[in-house]
Amino acid sequence: MTSEDELWLDDDAGLLVRPYTVTAGRTHPTVDLDLLSLVVAVGPRPPAMDLEHARALDLCRTPTSVAEVAAHLRLPVVVTKVLISDLVDSSAMTAHAPRTAADPTDRALLEKLLDGLQRV
């Protein structure tokens, strides 16, 4: 028999919580985020914030990619994106799209890439 206070823990996995409970069943972020989008904490903490949101804010004191946040939180990327979008919506965090050095639709660049791959 277990008490109501007992945490469900696993030595390897940590706290066992289903991802949909972290996001209250939401599966789509309200902000368009890429794995390489940089997020940074900027505003005051929202008044009623759960543990995952607080951990995400603490991780993002300096610009951090969405992929890094997901890895540190040990949560699926889609769950992390929902958490981050909550923080962006509450003005506690900002998100910036990744910048690419080259135009990914540049035909000459793509042909050079293809040529290089064929040589390998």
Q: Which features would summarize this protein structure in a list?
A:
single chain; 120 residues; alpha+beta; three-stranded antiparallel beta sheet; 12% strand
Outline type: elongated
| Strand segment tally | 5
Flag low-confidence runs. none
Distance from N terminus to C terminus (CA atoms, Å) equals 61 Å
Task: Output the strand order for the largest sheet.
Answer: 4-3-5
> How does the helix and strand content classify structurally?
alpha+beta
Residues in helices, as a percent range: 25-40%
Q: What's the story with the biggest beta sheet?
A: 3 strands, antiparallel
Order of helices and strands: EEHEHEHHEH
Separate helix tally: 5
As a percent range, the share of strand residues is: 5-15%
Question: What is the mean pLDDT?
Answer: 80
Radius of gyration: 19 Å
Structure description:
The protein has 120 residues and is of the alpha+beta class. The chain contains five helices and five strands. It has helices at residues 19-22, 51-59, 66-73, 77-89, 107-119, and strands at 9-10, 14-15, 38-41, 64-65, 93-96. It has a three-stranded antiparallel β-sheet with strand order 4-3-5. A hairpin with a 3-residue loop joins strand 1 and strand 2. The longest helix has 13 residues, at 77-89. The protein is elongated.
Quick rundown:
The protein is an alpha+beta fold.
Outline the secondary-structure elements.
Elements: E1 9-10, E2 14-15, H1 19-22, E3 38-41, H2 51-59, E4 64-65, H3 66-73, H4 77-89, E5 93-96, H5 107-119
Antiparallel strand pairs: 1-2, 3-4, 3-5
